Here is the input.
Amino acid sequence: MPRSRRAGPTSLLLGALILLLASGCAGSRPAIAVTRIPGDPPPASSFPIPVDPPTTPTPAAIPAPVPIAAPEDAPPFSVATTPATTNAVPPAPPTPPPTNWVRLDSWTARHPGVRPEIRAGSKLLRVGGVTAVLAFEPLPTSGSVLLHPLDVAKNLDPLTDPAPPWRRKSIVLDPGHGGVNAGTRIITGNRFEKEFTLDWARRLKPLLEAKGWTVTLTRTNDVDLSLPDRVRIAEASGAELFVSLHFNSAFPSQTAEGLETYCLTPTGMPSTITRQYADDPSSRHPNNRFDAENVRLAWRIHRSLLGSVAMKDRGIRRARFMDVLRAQGRPAVLVEGGYLSNPEEARRIATPEHRQRLAVGVAKAFD
Here is the structure.
């Protein structure tokens, strides 16, 4: 067997140097803990694995963006005004005017004797200084306004007939309220509507009789009288006309004032006033047979009253809830001679002189 060679001093020194260098390099590497993820294989040792320290690369310089020139005919871009979608729905075309509505200028050309004053967007109608309330709001059109055909037939056409709506000259005067049904209370004292309406009718009766009229009063004293009773009295008298006399109230408001004259609302039209009663435009009542005569009678009385007393014109109006009108078998109107809730107007109504002027005003309508 051959003999082994003994290591010399030089070999021992070189080995020690190699071990020293290896130990220094291992000691300079930091230990990094490994995060375990479920499913990873188990580690080979519980000691941390020496790895090289991480280095952060220096980011490369990012070049500035090169501007892109827009075409000369491109529209300006705005985030605030750019639509969210390119499928925007175009606006609907304007609604064409109703084909059956009537141009006011065309109507006046056919009826030169009547000059109505009407504005689009307002239901007020004025003819000869008298105000009325239309059922439907007029629409604007080129050079004129459009009127609902029912307003033309029921409010304008009757005014083209110059003949008076009566021939036999017999009339029923109906003083409103009476007895326990006192009506509204005057704001300036302890007097009631029933007193003033009866006095008005008593003053009006001889004035009409002097013109050759046969006059019947539904009541001649302070008695309670139902609405059906008033209609039956008119039927029994055979009178041609019916006029109910009242005074108004807007209490607790004290500012409302002026004269109003009512006739029954024609079928198909909404009422001017309902006072929380049901208002069925499709309904038809006995008095609707006299729609044209009603408005002619209302127009004559209202115009004559305005010429006799200096009071505000609140217009000719339509109502459907008034039983004393809708059951009549003859032309019929209801006159509101002023507001007992207005202090100034109430003081005038309380004077005999003013009630005489009201009586004269109604009587002149029957000249």
Summary: Residues 220 and 270 are 35 Å apart (CA to CA). Residues 1-14, 16-86 have pLDDT under 50 and may be disordered. The domain at 168-364 is CATH 3.40.630.40 (Aminopeptidase). Residues 9-27 form the longest helix (19 residues).
